[in-house]
Amino acid sequence: MFSFLRDSDEIPPNNPKLKAHAVKVFKMTCESAIQLREKGEVVVGETTLKHLGSVHLKNGVLEPHFQVVKEALIRTVKEAVGDKWSEDMGSAWGEAYDQLAAAIKVEMKQEPDNGHKS
After folding, report:
1. Chain-centroid distance, C-alpha 72
2. Which of 4, 45, 70, 77 has the lowest CB atom count within 10 Å?
3. CA 94 – CA 73 distance, rounded (Å)
């Protein structure tokens, strides 16, 4: 799924490009959580959303892939916060991620109109 891993000899956990991607997912999910709390909805800039939709579609990302990333994100956050973890915290992170993923998936379905933009 990750084009930047195809030509790499690094094992995935050591790959700096994979780590950078994970940081982007984390930051965007944090932004989604803040927006949900402040506005009750997640709004991603149109240019960013078109780019994300295009990249995910081009790389063959499917519905189950979003679930795998969600589970990895929640597991990572749970490990990082340790004793502060709660089911409510997990639900909040899950909701923020789901809202972000839903916006990307909508754009993926609209991709034929946006295929020439980078």
Report:
1. 11
2. 45
3. 9
Task: Give the model confidence (pLDDT) of 71-115 as tens digits.
Answer: 989 999 999 999 999 999 999 999 999 999 999 998 888 755 444
Report helix, strand or coil for 62: coil
pTM for the structure as a whole: 0.75
Res. 3 pLDDT band, cuts 50 70 90 = low
Domains of the chain: 17-113 (1.10.490.10)
Q: How far is CA 114 from CA 14, 42, 92, in A?
A: 34, 21, 32
Tokens of 29: 């999910």
* Two structure tokens written together for 53: 């939709």
Report which residue type is found at 83: D
Residue 61, Cβ neighbours under 10 Å: how many? 20
Specify the amino acid at residue 19: K
